[in-house]
Amino acid sequence: MHERYKVLKVIGSGSYGIVYLCKDLKSQENRVVKQLRPSKRRHRKEVELFKSEIALLHTLNHKKMPKLYETFSTDGYFFYVMSFINGDNLEDLIFYSKKTFNEQESLLILHQLLGLVDYLHTKNIYHQDLRIPNILLKNNELFLIDFGLSQQQILSAPSQLSSGSLQNNQEDTQEMKQQDYYDLGEILLYLLYTTYPSKNKKALPWTEELSLMKETVYLLKRLLQIKEPYSSVREISTDLHAALRANEREH
Ligand SMILES: Nc1ncnc2c1ncn2[C@@H]1O[C@H](COP(=O)(O)OP(=O)(O)OP(=O)(O)O)[C@@H](O)[C@H]1O
Q: Which residues are annotated as a binding site for ATP?
């Protein structure tokens, strides 16, 4: 790979990347090295996507997101090096460690996640792949990874754009924003189900199977676009706080 990095183990193998835990022999720190899958290295589009993931990581500066250290390529393989977050992803915690989250804990996870989404959206970055394997938990602190599908909307001055392209631009942004909100709803629902082992053979809709505070139901319905979709993180935050308060009063 690179003489500077000693591979300790493979920690992930996703759709287009292989993720290694490595020792950086220069700093003696553990790092994560992501490699574009060899079979795809000749596909220009994949290379472009990998490069845009790198460019995006470069614009991030948040302690709950990976820090980009360097990029390199050898023999036509592309790599980038980022900080190692020594936590477990939510998927492994739920499926292998059987971790459960009650209503309050699930809402608190959403609260942390919303802060990270707010940071990204403020920078016009839309993650577009908010899922439990992309969320790491380390000592109850949440970290967000995998910006492979993320998009940064470059906002041109309105005078530089025709009104048509300005409108398209705004529509794309709205769509990407809504996608991230929707994914937050799915994550919340996922967490809530961890304490409700389905006893019913015929699957019931969540509104019947889960007995949740009405504030949580309202929040979920708007995130999942069953009710009027949210238009800002601030709106979500207001309802999330109402749900958290309702839960505190109850318990
Ligand atoms: N910086 C990091 N620190 C610690 N673990 C990481 C880091 N980046 C990735 N991982 C681990 O590697 C796994 C795969 O990483 P990532 O999701 O970035 O790859 P991917 O190829 O895009 O995968 P997928 O197609 O499944 O989304 C993650 O679920 C996580 O467990």
A: 34
The model's pLDDT over 48-101, given as tens digits with 9 standing for 90+, comes to: 889 999 999 999 999 999 999 999 998 888 999 999 999 999 999 999 999 999
Q: Return the amino acid letter for 211.
A: S
Residues with CB under 6 A from ligand 1: 11-12, 14-17, 19, 32, 66, 82-85, 89, 133-134, 145-146, 148
Ligand 1 centroid to residue 149 C-alpha, Å: 13
Question: Is residue 75 flagged as an active site residue?
Answer: no
- Do residues 11 and 97 share a domain? no
Q: At what angle do helices 163-193 and 103-122 cross, to 10 degrees?
A: 160
- Which range of residues forms the domain containing residue 187? 88-250
Q: Cα(219)–Cα(181) distance, rounded to whole angstroms?
A: 11
Number of domains in the chain: 2
Same domain? 52 vs 168 = no
- Backbone φ and ψ for 115, nearest 5 degrees, come out as -60, -40
Distance separating alpha carbons of residues 221 and 195, to the nearest angstrom: 20
Q: In what order do the strands lie in the sheet with 135-138?
A: 88-89, 135-138, 141-144
Is 16 within 8 Å of 36 (Cβ atoms)?
Answer: yes
**Predicted TM-score of the model (pTM):** 0.91
**E-assigned strand segments in the chain:** 5-13, 17-24, 30-36, 68-74, 77-83, 88-89, 125-126, 135-138, 141-144, 151-152
User: Within this chain, do residues 111 and 60 fall inside the same structural domain, yes or no?
Assistant: no
